[in-house]
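Deviation from plan, reported transparently: manganese (II) ion complex.
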Amino acid sequence: MSVKFDRQDLERLKELLCSARRIVMTCHMSPDGDALGSTLAMRSLLKAMGKDARVVTPDEPPRTLRVLPGARQVMAWSSFGQVAESTVNRADLIICMDYNALSRLSRLENVVRNAPAPRVLIDHHKNPEDMAMLTFSYPDMSSTCELTCHLLTAMGWGEYIDNDVATCLLGGIITDTGGFHYNSNSSDLYRVVATLMERGVDKDRLMRCLVDTRSASSMRLEAYALEKKMELFADAHAALITLSRNELNSYEYRKGDTEGLVNRPLEIPGIAYSCYMREEEEYIKISMRSIGDFPVDLLCSRHYGGGGHLNAAGGEFHGTLQEAARIFRENLEENKELISPQTLEYADR
Ligand code: 5GP
Ligand code: MN
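Because the crystal trials were delayed, the predicted structure below was used instead.
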């Protein structure tokens, strides 16, 4: 594979992994398929090497991710509390995967920050915080899972990628590319996919479980959101969907039920970016998606204290849903300057 890693960094990573006995993988709160896939892949691989390897997450992963081997063995701080904390504290090595800042760990942040073990960062988000003794940050990669596969191969550990490891890695790639719908134009990605498929991964099952699965109530909620709550700003090439606590409750909303909703307006020709705002208990969860080179990470950091990738970003807004929506609408005119001719052409098809 053609991804170039620093030789010394690779050797250092190998040394750290080989000399550690207890290794803890961590990922961001509300783990998605890439966060869980990458950490579980490392867990599976390291366990096969005889390590005491565990995945500690801030909160419980959604049920839809149970297709990933080892998902039931995840130790969520929200459920295990003290046990999860002592697992992190007793680790010889902590691998931080699929996040670029310790604050993304939510209430697990200080536990990981204060744990005595050295940290390694393996991630594909831009602008990583200086929080690890060794950092593998590759923002051009589709996913942390793709990066992990490149890393393992470059370390000469390709033979340790068995069916379980490969299933986890392909699961993350599928999640972060929306089933190869976006962020998936690099030929290297398909070399990784081929490597994983050679391990006998059931790709069709992963696709069905990770992309084509949802509950009836979540489907109805999406229908409601699109029918009644989608605002289209044709002139600004933007779309906004807001859902209040009451609306969510009336569809028995569960975490993950509106996954993918923010993408739907981008199917409409002319729409370059889309925003979905959901009223949570303590804040307004913001999700944005775009096409072309429209930088939703910039909007999320500028207005909602968040960040992410060029085409997929999010944030937490501490205020009312109305306020968050007002800020979005107020900036539509100014944001027009961020829409390049190429993006427009892409949006128009
Ligand atoms: P989602 O909309 O799926 O929650 O998040 C999309 C992407 O935006 C994630 O991959 C993550 O990188 C980023 N993101 C989401 N929420 C936040 C946030 O609160 N802060 C930051 N910095 N990034 C976020
Ligand atoms: Mn990711």
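The mean pLDDT is 96. We consider this an acceptable substitute for the interim report.
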